[in-house]
Specification:
The protein has about 325 residues and is α/β, with parallel strands linked by helices. It is built from 13 helices and 5 strands.
Length: about 325
């Protein structure tokens, strides 16, 4: 049976109370959505012009607009298995703009807070070991720490907190986004954290989210110990051409618009121009909606789309 995304893909967090319908059913029956735009001459705002609840192509990580492809489903289930099976390290690699940051939000939203203590850390260039431990301490609610604490002292404080949580029946789940920015020393610190355990189980699960270049970095013999500990890995790919059509329709419907807002012939052009990268699809569609509203055009055609592309929007 062909796999397809649905509104209920990731549980209650992705459910819209105002739309108790199957999204794909609406995608395949665009007439089921609002049938026409409300024309408001005094504004060129696409939300008002197309009678939307919100702009469907904003540059944000709203879980309600998460479009579950087969690749995203695979990555989600693998990371969930890491958590449930007490695996120390999991990795999602992805081309920039394909949804890894949004996937961190879905995982955070789905975690049972009575069993897990989530800690989301955003890495950045020259992110030091002490900076990582201090952010982790803050996420684990350790409290104020002296700025004079040594790296060794910071590690001891974090380790003690992890053991304390274990006694309370709670496991920390550490999600590190943009992990490709971490230095070799900081990566080895993650290996040390992943080794915190009892005789029966690992006490921490660390999920790494980074660009595909991070895999090349892990291929260096210096990081063999880290790579071997990364039991479960997944890769997010750009959208296929057929998925671009479903993606655009899905987001339009989720924003309260029409499934046929973009005409059929536009989708191949969108895929060609963006390479199927969701962030680029959003950017192009966002700018095209704005241009259409400004020109008072109720449907997005290939001619209009090409006009926007030629203008470099």
């Amino acid at each position: 049976m062909a796999w397809s995304p649905s509104l209920n893909s990731f549980g209650d967090g992705a459910r819209r109370k105002t739309m108790e319908v199957n999204v794909i059913e609406l995608v395949d029956r665009p007439e089921a959505g609002p049938t026409q735009a409300e024309f408001t001459p005094e504004t060129s705002d696409p939300v008002a012009f197309f009678n939307l609840r919100e702009n469907p192509f904003l540059d944000n990580v709203n879980p309600e607009f998460f479009f579950r492809t087969e690749a995203h489903e695979d990555a989600y289930l693998k990371m969930k298995k890491c958590i449930e099976d007490n695996i120390a390290l999991g990795l999602i690699s992805a081309q920039s703009g394909t949804g890894k940051t949004l996937l961190t939000q879905i995982l955070l939203q789905e975690l049972d807070k009575s069993r897990y203590r989530p800690a989301l850390i955003l890495a950045y260039p020259r992110f030091s070991r002490s900076a990582l431990l201090r952010e982790l301490a803050q996420e684990l609610e350790i409290g104020d720490l002296s700025p004079r604490l040594t790296l060794h002292a910071l590690m001891n404080v974090v380790q003690e907190r992890i053991y304390q949580l274990h006694k309370e029946g709670v496991k920390p789940v550490i999600l590190i986004d943009e992990v490709h920015f971490l230095s070799g020393d900081t990566l080895h610190l993650l290996r040390t954290l992943s080794n915190i355990e009892t005789a029966r189980m690992k006490l921490v699960t660390i999920l790494l989210f980074g660009e595909e270049s991070f895999l090349e970095k892990l291929g260096d013999p210096r990081f063999k110990a880290i790579l071997s500990r990364t039991f479960i890995r997944a890769n997010l790919r750009p959208l296929f051409a057929s998925e671009v059509e479903q993606y655009v329709k899905f987001r339009c419907l989720m924003a309260g618009g029409r499934g046929d807002l973009f005409t059929k012939e536009t989708f191949a052009r969108i895929h060609e121009h963006t390479g199927g990268v969701p962030r680029e699809v959003n950017r192009l569609c966002h700018n095209t909606l704005a241009w259409a509203a400004q020109k008072r055009i109720a449907s997005i055609t290939s001619e209009l789309l090409n006009d926007v592309i030629c203008k470099g929007y």
